[in-house]
Structures are given as C-alpha cells and as structure tokens.
C-alpha cells in the first residue's frame, strides 16, 4: 500500500532562510567575489612597488589591463583608499600614498611592527645553516674564533610585498636545535618562547647602501634604489651578546625616526 507524500508549503521568507542556512550560493556571485579579491591583491602588490605619490594609470586603461569592469576596479580602488594606500586628487587621478614605515629605536621585531600597522607579515626562508665564527662575528658576539653559529637569512614581507632582507647570526650553544624550528615565523618569538632568551638592548648602526643584483632581485627594486642597512648586536638581560644581524630595508618603504634631547650641560 503506497504512502502519500506530504508537501509542505513554505511561508513568506522561508525560502530565503533556507538559502542562508547553506544552500549553494549563486555561481555568478562567487566568481565576482573571487575576481575582486584577485584584483585587490594585484593592486596592493603594484602599489607597494611604486614610489610615494606615483600616479596610477587612468581608470579605463587599468581596467582594460587587468581584464575587469570599471565597476570592479572602482570597488578595489575604494578599498585601497580606505586602507590609506592610495589617495585621489579630483580631476587628476589616483596616487600612491606615502606609507613608509617609521622604524624607531624600540626593539620590536618585524612581525610586531607590521601587525601594529595593520599589515600582514610573512617570511620567506632563504638560508638556514651552521657556520664557523670568524673575525667580526667572533668579536661582536664575544666568542672564540671557530665557535659554531647558526645563520638565518630571510626575506620579510608585508601584505605579500618584499620589505626587508635580513641575515642573523646566533651562537649555536644558546639555541640548540634552532634549525629545525619554523623559521618562517618571528625569530624573537622563538628565542623567547623556546629558549627563554630575550634581546633587551642593542647597538645599531644605520647607513645608506647601494643594493647588489641579488638584493635587487629579492626585494624587487631597481638597481638605482637605495637601501637602509641596519647592523645590530643584541644583548640579553645578562649582558650576553645573543645575536648579530644585518637588515636591509627598502628605502622607499621605510624611514627611521629618532628622538634627540639636549643635555642639561648644553
């Protein structure tokens, strides 16, 4: 004996509730969202590589180049405008904001600096190996020549754009097993959490330098660009030299901010 299937009629608004509860969304909407995300990422990457106050191409030309509608492009540009990455001048166009990061004398790491500015930090590990301390390394770290060091070279990025190339040398006896750690994360965090070593004071020297071809390739800058080189020796609370680092910052993305005070005798 067959059973009769009972049909329940949906009341007003119930169909939409089912859609919100998990029925497939419109493919057109998904495509548009994905396209906008791609264009936003592409524009952020382009803007990060341009000098401050550079003009972006005309809206029509940029939309054609990226293969999107002008409506989608305007939405992506509006998000960059809201983020402070670009600014507009009526009748003239859209320009790159001066978003160089002010690096002061605090000992915050790259990851902390970027997060504080609403940027997403990431790292690309280039070299992680062991080496023997010679000359400057041995002298700066207060070690006998021939002591074992760990070398970590990383490219530091913010929102996917190269910002800094750093090479750090660390005494191996203070950080056993360091090379098996996830060095794509913040190194200061690993030093503190895993080894209970924290840099509390540092000596730093800052200079403007001309990039090598390798540095240009990694930082995605032209040979004519200037780099800010920061050489640092970091000490822990016991006065031990625990790191020797050389960081190369893109001059178009960073400036250093220092505060000077006049002494009483002056």
Automatic annotation (TrEMBL):
Signal sequence annotation: none
Superkingdom: Bacteria
Lineage: Bacteria, Bacillati, Actinomycetota, Actinomycetes, Micromonosporales
Chain intervals with Basic residues compositional bias: 1-10
One of the record's GO molecular function terms: DNA binding
One GO BP: negative regulation of DNA-templated transcription
InterPro entries assigned to the protein according to its UniProt record, in alphabetical order: Bact_HTH_transcr_reg, Chorismate_lyase_/UTRA_dom_sf, Tscrpt_reg_HTH_GntR, UTRA, WH-like_DNA-bd_sf, WH_DNA-bd_sf
Listed SMART domains: HTH_GNTR (SM00345), UTRA (SM00866)
Keywords: DNA-binding, Transcription, Transcription regulation
SUPFAM superfamilies found in the cross-reference section: Chorismate lyase-like, Winged helix' DNA-binding domain
HTH gntR-type domain residues: 33-99
Residue numbers spanned by region Disordered: 1-22
CDD domains reported in the protein's UniProt record: WHTH_GntR
Annotated PROSITE patterns: HTH_GNTR
Protein name listed in UniProt: HTH gntR-type domain-containing protein
């Amino acid at each position: 004996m067959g059973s009769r299937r009972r049909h329940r009629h949906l009341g007003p608004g119930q169909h939409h509730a089912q859609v919100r509860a998990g029925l497939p969304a419109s493919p057109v909407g998904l495509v548009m969202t994905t396209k906008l995300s791609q264009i936003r990422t592409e524009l952020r990457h382009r803007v990060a590589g341009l000098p401050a106050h550079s003009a972006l191409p005309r809206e029509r030309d940029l939309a054609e180049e990226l293969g999107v509608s002008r409506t989608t492009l305007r939405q992506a540009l509006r998000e960059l405008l809201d983020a402070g990455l670009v600014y507009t001048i009526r009748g003239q166009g859209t320009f790159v904001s001066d978003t160089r990061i002010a690096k002061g004398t605090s000992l915050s790491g790259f990851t902390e600096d970027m997060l504080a500015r609403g940027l997403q930090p990431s790292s690309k590990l280039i070299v992680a190996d062991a080496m023997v301390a010679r000359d400057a390394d041995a002298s700066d770290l207060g070690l006998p020549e021939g002591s074992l060091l760990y070398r970590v070279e990383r490219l530091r990025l913010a929102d996917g754009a190269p910002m800094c190339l750093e090479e750090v040398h660390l005494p191996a006896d203070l950080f056993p097993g360091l090379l098996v750690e996830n060095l794509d994360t913040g190194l200061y965090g690993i030093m503190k959490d895993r080894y209970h070593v924290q840099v509390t004071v540092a000596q730093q020297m800052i200079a403007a330098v001309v990039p090598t071809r390798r540095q240009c390739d990694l930082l995605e800058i032209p040979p004519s660009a200037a780099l800010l080189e920061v050489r640092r020796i970091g000490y822990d609370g016991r006065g031990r030299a625990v790191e020797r680092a050389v960081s190369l910052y893109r001059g178009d993305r960073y400036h250093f901010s220092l505060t000077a005070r006049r002494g009483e005798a002056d």
